[in-house]
Design a protein that fits this description.
Helices cover 38% and strands 14% of the residues. By secondary structure, the chain is an alpha/beta fold. The protein has a seven-stranded mixed beta sheet with strand order 1-9-8-5-4-2-3, sandwiched between helices. A three-stranded antiparallel beta sheet has the order 7-6-11, with no helix packed on it. The protein has a three-stranded antiparallel beta sheet with strand order 10-12-13.
């Protein structure tokens, strides 16, 4: 049985008529740049996050970059973040001439360990970027206390966590800013690239809007060095169709996660460490990520059986060649490095069938001789 990591075809069939209708509407209106669909999505997502501003941009990477620039991060500054994340988290920091300062993760959640943050703060520290990895929020209450104590901005990298909650609060309610990605594979995915910044900070919001259009306001009058990073009207139209389904799709992901966990514990046992939803968290399971020994061998075996899996992420940022000049070495962050050798994400999407999950678990059990 072939089982993909993600299959968007069934989802598309369920919303096809609506999608085609809104795309035709955009085409007929000839309004392709920062039109009514973008405005609606910005408003709706800001409201969803209980904040006042949503600023659509070209992608999730630019969302982090623009947010940091709007917060005044510049050459000589330091930004504390996790090394166990996608490149854009660290890349956005260095593109502004600032220095990423990495700290280790909580091995249970894979998120930044708040107990490691304070030791990394210096007089150059300007911000903290917690990454809500795999769909579970970091410990934002502890992080907020540290940030407030040291007068630091907090940028929540929520590329994988739209809809997630921590003690009843959503993404964006803790940090100065939160950023989203609408890459097609995300829980709320476009049919191309897209991103958004959400914030309660009026000044950061206004600067972000200016930066995304080459730093100009009014048009052709440039106050800062910005970028061409606008959320496309066609992508916003698609996202407006999908957005009302987000919470239901999130619940379905949680149901699939519970099934995986039950089956794995029953059939495979201690060979697999299943994801843990920390008390007070609402995990939206962008990924269902297990920890196993012989990870690479298991992944190869599952591939032979037609089962797709992914490793997020095989080489932490502090060991990436591009960051060699920062002086980190293997052994600096043991929890991060161990996770990079053990983490394996299984197929996960709302339309995943029980028979598919049963097959995935059966093949994992087969690999371990269960």
């Amino acid at each position: 049985m072939k089982i993909p990591m993600l299959d968007l075809s069934e989802q598309y069939q369920s919303i096809k008529s609506e999608v085609l209708e809104v795309l035709d509407s955009v085409m007929s209106s000839s309004s392709f740049i920062l039109g009514e669909n973008v405005k609606k999505l910005e408003h709706d997502i800001a409201k969803f996050n209980n904040v006042t501003h949503g600023i659509g941009c070209g992608n999730g990477s630019d969302a982090i970059l623009i947010a940091l620039q709007a917060l005044g991060v510049t050459k000589g500054d330091e930004v504390i973040t996790t090394s166990f994340t996608f490149f854009s988290t660290g890349g956005a920091i260095t593109r502004l001439g600032a220095t990423p300062v990495y700290v280790d993760i909580d091995p249970v959640t894979f998120n930044i360990d708040p107990n490691k943050i304070e030791d990394a703060i210096t007089e150059k520290t300007k911000a903290i970027i917690p990454v809500h990895l795999y769909g579970q929020m970091a410990d934002m209450e502890k992080i907020s206390v540290i940030a407030n104590k040291h007068n630091l901005a907090v940028v929540e990298d929520a590329a994988q966590a739209i809809g997630a909650k921590h003690n009843g609060k959503t993404v964006g309610e803790f940090g100065t800013v939160a950023t989203y990605s609408f890459f097609p594979t995300k829980n709320l995915g476009a049919y191309g690239d897209g991103g958004m910044i959400v914030t309660n900070d009026d000044e950061v919001a206004e600067l972000s809007r200016i930066i995304r259009v080459h730093g100009s306001k009014p048009k052709y009058y440039h106050h800062v060095n910005g970028y061409n990073s606008r959320l496309d009207e066609l992508q916003a139209a698609v996202l407006n169709v999908k957005f009302p389904h987000l919470e239901r799709w999130g619940e379905l992901r949680r149901e699939k996660a519970a099934i995986y966990t039950s089956l794995l514990k029953k059939i495979v046992g201690e060979e697999v460490i299943t994801p843990v939803e920390k008390e007070g968290n609402y995990h939206v399971f962008h990924q269902y990520t297990i920890r196993v020994e012989k990870r690479n061998e298991l992944q190869s075996y599952l591939k032979e059986q037609g089962i797709a899996t992914m490793v997020y992420y095989p080489l932490p940022l502090h060991l990436q060649p591009v960051f060699k000049s920062l002086g980190y070495k293997e052994g600096d962050f043991p929890a991060t490095e161990k996770a990079a050798k053990e983490a394996l994400s299984l197929p996960m999407y709302p339309e995943l069938k029980l028979v598919q999950q049963e097959n995935v678990v059966a093949k994992i059990a087969e690999f371990y001789g269960k």
